[in-house]
Design goal:
- This protein has a domain at about 5-155: Aminopeptidase.
- The protein has a 7-stranded mixed β-sheet with strand order 1-2-3-4-5-7-6, with helices on both faces.
- With about 300 residues, it is α+β, with helices and mostly antiparallel strands.
- α1 (about 15-30) packs across α2.
- It has 5 helices and 9 strands, in the order βααβββαβαββββα.
- It has helices spanning about 15-30, 50-60, 105-115, 130-140, 295-309, and strands spanning about 5-10, 65-70, 70-80, 85-95, 120-125, 140-145, 150-155, 290, 295.
- The relative contact order is 0.09.
Length: about 300
C-alpha cells in the first residue's frame, strides 16, 4: 500500500473533498438503497454531504482531516473532540477507487495516534451497511445500541490519564450542586434528563450529539454562540434579539413547514439567493424595501395603477 497520511483540511480543499465525498456516498446509495427513492437514511446520505458550503463549515468548526496517498487527496475523516478524553467519528470516506486496500483502518489508527489522550470513541452507522459493522468491530469497536435504521458503536482505550478524577458508572441522580466550581468538567454518556441549571456560568461550553428535545431556554445569554447542524422543527422563539445573526444554508426540513415572522422588526435585513416562492407579506411596513434593486413601493404603485385601467 502507498504511503497514507492525514492532514488538517483547509478551506482550499473544500471543493475536492466535497467531490470525493459525494461520489463515495452516492456509491453507498447505489449499493445499499437500490431503487428505494422513498427511503431516507442519514448515515448513507448525511445531510449536506454534497454541499461545498457544508464542507467549509465542517473544516472551520470541526476536526476535519484530509486523507492523502502520497500527496493526493483520496478521502477525509471528520471528528468531534469533547473535552480531553472523548471523541466522535462524524464521517469517514475514501474514494471508491481506493477502497478495499486497508486505507480506512490506517486512517482510524492515525486519528487515534493524533488524539492519543482520547479514551472513548463513538460513532453511528447505518444498519444497512453490513460491511461497516465488520470494519468497526475489527477496529475494536463494540455495539452500544441497535435499531432498525442505525447501529451505535463505542471503543474504549486505556490511557495514562489520572483515573482518580473520573466518576464512572455511578448513580448520583437527584443530587443538588450549589455554589460549586465545576469548570472544565466533562460529561459523556450522562443522563441529565429533567435536570435544572440556573444562575450558573456555562460560558464557552461545547454541547454536541446531545438530546435536548422538550427543553426550555429562558433568560439566557447566547451572545457569540454557534448553532449549526440543528433540528429546530416546530420550535418557538419568543422575545428574541437577533441583531447581527446570520442564517446560512437553511431549509424547512423534510415536512417543508413554512417559517412565520409575526410582529418582527427586520429593518435593514437582506435576503439573497433564496427560494421565496409562495411567501406572503401582509400588513407590513415596506418603506425602503427593494427586490432586485427595484423599490417595492414602486412595484405596488405600478400594480395598482395597472389595475385601475
Amino acid at each position: 500500500m502507498s504511503f497514507i497520511t492525514i492532514e488538517k483540511a483547509t478551506i482550499t480543499d473544500a471543493e475536492k473533498l466535497t467531490e470525493i465525498k459525494k461520489r463515495t456516498f452516492d456509491e453507498e446509495v447505489k449499493k445499499w438503497l437500490p431503487n428505494q427513492d422513498d427511503v431516507i437514511d442519514y448515515n448513507i446520505q448525511p445531510p449536506g454531504y454534497s454541499s461545498v458550503e457544508m464542507t467549509k463549515y465542517m473544516i472551520r468548526e470541526l476536526e476535519y482531516f484530509k486523507v492523502l496517498q502520497d500527496k493526493e487527496i483520496i478521502g477525509g475523516i471528520i471528528i468531534t473532540i469533547s473535552g480531553k478524553s472523548f471523541g466522535r467519528i462524524d464521517r469517514i470516506f475514501v474514494d471508491p477507487n481506493y477502497q478495499g486496500k486497508g486505507i480506512g483502518s490506517r486512517v482510524i489508527n492515525l486519528v487515534e495516534e493524533e488524539f492519543w489522550n482520547v479514551r472513548t470513541w463513538d460513532l453511528e452507522t447505518s444498519s444497512r451497511q453490513i460491511n461497516n459493522h465488520y470494519f468497526y468491530e475489527k477496529m475494536g469497536y463494540r455495539t452500544t445500541f441497535e435499531s432498525e435504521d442505525e447501529y451505535g458503536y463505542l471503543k474504549k482505550i486505556e490511557t495514562s490519564s489520572e483515573k482518580e478524577n473520573i466518576a464512572e458508572n455511578k448513580n448520583i441522580s437527584s443530587f443538588q450542586y450549589v455554589n460549586c466550581d465545576m469548570a472544565k468538567t466533562e460529561f459523556y454518556g450522562v443522563n441529565l434528563e429533567s435536570s435544572s441549571f440556573s444562575n450558573s456560568n456555562v460560558m464557552n461550553s461545547h454541547i454536541s450529539n446531545c438530546n435536548l428535545s422538550h427543553s426550555k431556554f429562558q433568560n439566557i445569554n447566547f451572545k457569540n454562540s454557534l448553532y449549526a447542524d440543528l433540528n429546530l422543527s416546530n420550535s418557538e422563539m419568543i422575545f428574541v434579539t437577533l441583531g447581527g445573526v446570520s442564517f446560512i444554508d437553511t431549509n424547512l426540513g423534510d415536512e417543508n413547514k413554512p417559517i412565520s415572522f409575526v410582529r418582527c422588526d427586520l429593518e435593514g435585513s437582506k435576503l439573497s439567493n433564496c427560494n421565496l416562492r409562495n411567501v406572503e407579506i401582509q400588513k407590513s411596513d415596506l418603506t425602503g424595501m427593494k427586490i432586485d434593486n427595484v423599490p417595492v413601493e414602486d412595484l405596488i404603485e405600478a400594480y395598482y395603477q395597472l389595475n385601475k385601467k
